[in-house]
């Protein structure tokens, strides 16, 4: 049986696919299997091609996105920081994992509110160690400061 579905190598189809994925993610919050199937059906392409395209771009998420996306800087300045009551990137990561109750390999808190990942230099080396939560940058982090930031966010 031959398929009459177009392959998204066609530039116009590909552009439409990216737009459709963007809209679907805006609508559903992430690209579930159902959302991918819908996009494929609407555009007349194979679900596998939609999935491959969605996986290629970091802009698209195949799992629900946490409300607060915590990005810990692992750049050199943050990695080497950590005197007195402050900590370096590794200590900060370990502290956050413990505070959020994340098990080995787990990246999202059980309530789905927080996710944790590492990034390279957030371009604020003078305030190392740093982390970004969504669009907000937090520097000169100490355990007490992290506690108060998480407590504030947990209230919302
Ligand atoms: S190394 Fe962390 S902000 Fe530059």
What does this structure look like?
This protein has 156 residues and is α+β, with helices and mostly antiparallel strands. It folds into two domains: 11-56; 68-155, Glutaredoxin, CATH 3.40.30.10. It is built from six helices and four strands, in the order H-H-H-E-H-H-E-E-E-H. It has helices at residues 11-28, 33-43, 47-56, 76-80, 89-100, 143-155; strands at 68-73, 114-119, 131-133, 136-138. Strands 2-1-3-4 form a four-stranded mixed sheet, with helices on one face. Helix 2 (33-43) crosses helix 3. It is elongated, with a radius of gyration of 20 Å. The protein starts with 10 loop residues before the first helix and ends with a helix. The model has no long low-confidence stretch (mean pLDDT 88). Bound molecules: FE2/S2 (inorganic) cluster. FE2/S2 (inorganic) cluster is lined by residues 73, 75-78, 121-125, 128, 130.
Q: What's the helix and strand layout?
A:
Layout: H1 11-28, H2 33-43, H3 47-56, E1 68-73, H4 76-80, H5 89-100, E2 114-119, E3 131-133, E4 136-138, H6 143-155
Parallel strand pairs: 1-2
Antiparallel strand pairs: 1-3, 3-4
Helix pairs in contact: 1-2, 2-3
This protein binds FE2/S2 (inorganic) cluster.
Task: Please name the defining characteristics of this protein.
alpha+beta; Glutaredoxin; 6 helices
């Amino acid at each position: 049986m031959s398929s009459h579905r177009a392959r998204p190598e066609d530039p116009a189809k590909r552009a439409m696919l990216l737009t459709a994925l963007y809209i679907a993610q805006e609508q559903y919050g992430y690209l579930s299997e159902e959302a991918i199937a819908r996009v494929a059906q609407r555009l007349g392409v194979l679900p596998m091609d939609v999935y491959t395209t969605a996986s290629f771009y970091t802009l698209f998420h195949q799992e629900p996105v946490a409300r607060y996306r915590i990005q810990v800087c692992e750049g050199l300045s943050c990695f080497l920081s950590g005197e007195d009551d402050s900590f370096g990137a590794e200590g900060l990561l370990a502290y956050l994992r413990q505070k959020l109750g994340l098990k080995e390999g787990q990246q999202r808190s059980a309530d789905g509110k927080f996710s944790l990942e590492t990034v390279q230099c957030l371009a604020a080396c003078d305030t190392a160690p740093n982390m970004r939560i969504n669009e907000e940058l937090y520097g000169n982090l100490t355990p007490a400061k992290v506690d108060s930031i998480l407590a504030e966010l947990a209230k919302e």
